[in-house]
Amino acid sequence: MRKVVVVTGANSGIGFALCERLLSYDDQIRLCLGCRNLQRAEAARTALLSSHPTADVSVLLVDVGKVTSVVRAAKELKERYKKVDYLYLNAGIMPNPQLSFRAFIKGLFSRNVINMFATAEGILTQKDRITEDGLQEVFETNVFGHFMLIREIEPLLCHADSTSQLIWTSSSNARKSAFSLSDYQHSQGQEPYSSSKYATDLLSVALNKQYNKQGLYSSVVCPGLVMTNLTYGIMPSFFWTLIMPIMWLIRVFTNSFTISPFNGAEALMWLFNQKAESLDPLSKYHSCTSGLGNNYVCLSKMDVDEKSGDLLLQKMLELEKEICKKSIPDYRNS
Ligand SMILES: NC(=O)C1=CN([C@@H]2O[C@H](COP(=O)(O)OP(=O)(O)OC[C@H]3O[C@@H](n4cnc5c(N)ncnc54)[C@H](OP(=O)(O)O)[C@@H]3O)[C@@H](O)[C@H]2O)C=CC1
Ligand SMILES: CC(C)CCC[C@@H](C)[C@H]1CC[C@H]2C3=C(CC[C@]12C)[C@@]1(C)CCC(=O)[C@@H](C)[C@@H]1CC3
């Protein structure tokens, strides 16, 4: 049976590089590009087909920042496929990022310098906004929209006789101290991105507990620091081009400067080839690039506890009920 792979945020950056790599590895997969913009999605599909003309590549319009769009997309998926083997939960945003130059300079001369380059701890904040569903945009896009998608296509993901994998693009910027269960959408603080990625890590742990017995497994990945539209929102692309020699130099000291989307997709690609049951639900899988430019995958234990994961899952289920009642009047009948 040909494997069905769905990738959200597939039209650019790490998502697009992953699609290229998946097709180069196995052009028999049925690849579905989950994107919010039809033009950008079609451009990505055309580019993928130009290098893999016989591949099965389709587009699924989905805005993970809008509950109605997620529900519609899930319905479409249920009409198209009997099973989804891999669901890459990759779409993500970091709106209005602000770099603290003072904290950056201070960090440069501290013992924490390597950690600062790998995680951006203490130097990056963002400004969030409320979506039309009434949720924090970063939380809805990076976490809740994806969670809804999983819930809506549960029958495609849970099969007694074979496994499916959820693969989240998380980040080493995920930090426990940026997250609070009492404000899990991060409406109060200034680090919604870090909070959303920590929520992703917690949720993945809880989803494994909930779904493993039904054949569904969840993992989280950090792609490292990659040059994409997301990082061009922090500093313009010419800045990154100018400092590229410095970036290569930093790579000698930290393996997290993967830099290219191809390298960043390493761990996402590696997970595609693993037996789902053999994966560690409490580890994060990192794409790494050595000083000489070689790619590999390494694991780190996540700073998570199962109880917080369960509590977050409970809160997400309550929110799902509340939001669907509000945004989709005849929900469960549709
Ligand atoms: N770049 C980096 O250094 C790192 C990135 N990551 C994570 O990697 C993932 C991919 O980001 P990256 O490739 O870097 O950045 P890009 O901005 O290049 O890609 C993000 C993708 O997500 C899509 N997207 C954003 N919002 C939505 C939405 N509401 N609905 C559907 N799709 C949406 C974008 O679509 P559109 O083109 O329409 O905007 C785009 O295709 C993100 O989750 C990010 O947090 C993690 C660690 C490091
Ligand atoms: C390298 C240069 C000399 C100076 C660049 C300074 C900062 C702009 C970067 C240093 C660490 C970077 C980083 C990220 C963004 C750019 C930096 C803050 C991320 C937060 C991007 C998104 C992620 O998810 C993280 C994994 C990155 C962590 C490191």
From TrEMBL:
Record-level Gene Ontology MF annotations: 3-beta-hydroxysteroid 3-dehydrogenase (NADP+) activity; 5-alpha-androstane-3-beta,17-beta-diol dehydrogenase (NADP+) activity; estradiol 17-beta-dehydrogenase [NAD(P)+] activity
Gene3D superfamilies recorded: NAD(P)-binding Rossmann-like Domain
Subunit text: Binds to the short form of prolactin receptor.
Pathway, per record: Steroid biosynthesis; estrogen biosynthesis; Steroid biosynthesis; zymosterol biosynthesis; zymosterol from lanosterol: step 5/6
EC number(s) stated in the UniProt entry for this protein: 1.1.1.210, 1.1.1.270, 1.1.1.62
Lineage, uppermost ranks: Eukaryota, Metazoa, Chordata, Craniata, Vertebrata
Membrane-spanning segments: 230-250
Keywords: Endoplasmic reticulum, Glycoprotein, Lipid biosynthesis, Lipid metabolism, Membrane, NAD, NADP, Oxidoreductase, Steroid biosynthesis, Transmembrane, Transmembrane helix
The keyword 4Fe-4S belongs to this UniProt entry's keyword annotation: no
Catalytic activity: 5alpha-androstane-3beta,17beta-diol + NADP(+) = 17beta-hydroxy-5alpha-androstan-3-one + NADPH + H(+); 4alpha-methyl-5alpha-cholest-7-en-3beta-ol + NADP(+) = 4alpha-methyl-5alpha-cholest-7-en-3-one + NADPH + H(+); 3-dehydro-4alpha-methylzymosterol + NADPH + H(+) = 4alpha-methylzymosterol + NADP(+); a 3beta-hydroxysteroid + NADP(+) = a 3-oxosteroid + NADPH + H(+)
Membrane topology designation: Single-pass membrane protein
GO cellular component terms attached to this protein's record: endoplasmic reticulum membrane
Name assigned to this protein: 3-keto-steroid reductase/17-beta-hydroxysteroid dehydrogenase 7
Catalytic EC class: oxidoreductase
Coiled coil residues, start to end: none
UniProt family annotation: Belongs to the short-chain dehydrogenases/reductases (SDR) family. ERG27 subfamily.
Cross-referenced InterPro entries: 3KSR/17beta-HSD, HSD17B7/Erg27, NAD(P)-bd_dom_sf, SDR_fam
Gene from which this protein is expressed: hsd17b7
GO terms of biological process kind: cholesterol biosynthetic process; estrogen biosynthetic process
Organism of derivation: Xenopus tropicalis (Western clawed frog)
